[in-house]
Amino acid sequence: MEVPLTSREIEYVLRWKEKIFWPDEDRIVRKLRTALEVQQGLNLSFIQIQIIHGWAEERVGGHFGSKVVNSEENSIMRKLEDVLEANAG
């Protein structure tokens, strides 16, 4: 599935994952880096998009369950949610 993230947003997502624990995370990070290097669209599976969405939720989670979101994070989350909703079910 095509994920319409800008280069800046991809760079932002890459900063969320300093330590990679799982092979799936490694594959996602490699896809993100490749998309930046070749300057073409980002294609991810439904599960990979869900994983990145999970990273976003971890990133914006604030104290007492409130979200702390800047404009880049908000844009990324909206785009991920839109793709997930369009391809659910």
Structural class: mainly alpha
Whole-number mean pLDDT: 88
Helix content: 55-70%
The shape is globular
> How would you sum up the major sheet?
2 strands, antiparallel
Can you tell me the number of structural domains?
Answer: 1
Quick structural overview:
With 89 residues, the protein is mostly helical. It contains four helices and two strands.
Textual characterization of the structure:
This protein has one domain. Helix 1 (7-16) runs antiparallel to helix 2 (23-38) and helix 3 (46-60) runs antiparallel to helix 4 (71-86). It has 89 residues and is mainly alpha-helical. The protein has helices at 7-16, 23-38, 46-60, 71-86, and strands at 2-3, 42-43.
Q: Can you lay out the helices and strands and say which pair or pack?
A:
Elements: E1 2-3, H1 7-16, H2 23-38, E2 42-43, H3 46-60, H4 71-86
Antiparallel strand pairs: 1-2
Helix pairs in contact: 1-2, 3-4
Characteristics:
mainly alpha; 2 strands; 89 residues; globular
